[in-house]
Design a protein that fits this description.
About 25% of the residues lie in helices and about 25% in strands. By secondary structure, the protein is an alpha/beta fold.
Length: about 240
């Protein structure tokens, strides 16, 4: 029997004089090895991705993390703090794709940038630089450290709602690596995990009968060795197979 297809929008990546569509290998590996689904990458750019066609192919959708940020014009009139870190081609696909996915009740898992896209697509806003907000922590990546240290769990999040029920715990340790974060929660989303300073770290919704989860941390990193990552990707895979979350 064939595996369910999980589509993943790419990011725009420049290498020398050439433009590539790229997704971190770890996202595809987690989908294949833990969710037991078939990852399928979707290019971004004018005319390269038709949303109706994608939704016909997809059993579920994963919105991966990225070094790039959602352009602030999609949620405010602020100028971008880091203009060099934008990816307008990705925004042009992911934001309407999220809205269409929610409308079509497709299982959806959004990670890091994807988590922020989910909030923006449904009407929320972002802090462009969480570390500059009074009372918030600095969760940015430490590039001078080895990868295993960068992606190890570093701070707790308090859980509530269905996510707490799924994981069977009131608190977990996570590996958040991000500069941006939720400022105003989208009206149809439910906050289900919070950092120690009450920054939202996971959202769910808007339909209890559909797997629609966004997390600010990185469950795709070494997912088979982390019981929380295993639980989330397996539940996502089950949803791709038509099972109710």
């Amino acid at each position: 029997m064939s595996r369910p297809v999980v589509i993943m929008p790419c990011c725009t990546k420049s290498l020398g004089d050439y433009t590539f569509d790229a997704v971190g290998r770890q996202y595809a590996t987690a989908v294949a090895d833990v969710a037991d689904c078939q990852p399928l990458l979707v290019p971004v750019g004018p005319g390269l991705a038709d949303i109706a066609s994608l939704l016909e192919v997809a059993d579920a959708i994963l919105f991966p993390g990225s070094p790039s940020n959602v352009e602030p014009s999609h949620y405010s009139d602020e100028p971008p703090v880091k203009p060099e870190a934008l990816d307008s081609f990705r925004d042009a696909l992911t934001l309407p794709l999220i809205r269409a996915s929610v409308e079509r009740k497709k299982p959806l898992f959004a990670i890091c940038r994807g988590f922020q896209e989910l909030n923006v697509a449904l009407g929320g806003s972002l802090h462009q630089a969480v570390h500059d907000v009074t009372g918030q922590s600095d969760h940015r990546e430490r590039p001078n450290r080895p990868l295993d240290e960068r992606y190890c769990p570093v701070h707790p999040v308090a859980l509530r709602g269905k996510l707490r029920d799924w994981l069977g715990s009131d608190e977990i340790m996570v590996n958040s690596l991000h500069g941006q974060g939720i400022k105003r929660l989208a009206p149809d989303l439910q906050a289900e995990a919070f950092a120690e300073n009450q920054l939202i770290e996971a959202v769910r919704g808007p339909d209890d009968e559909v797997f629609c989860l966004g997390v600010q941390w990185h469950p795709e990193w070494a997912p088979k060795s982390n019981e929380v990552s295993v639980a989330l990707f397996r539940r996502f895979g089950a949803a791709a197979r038509g099972m109710t979350p």
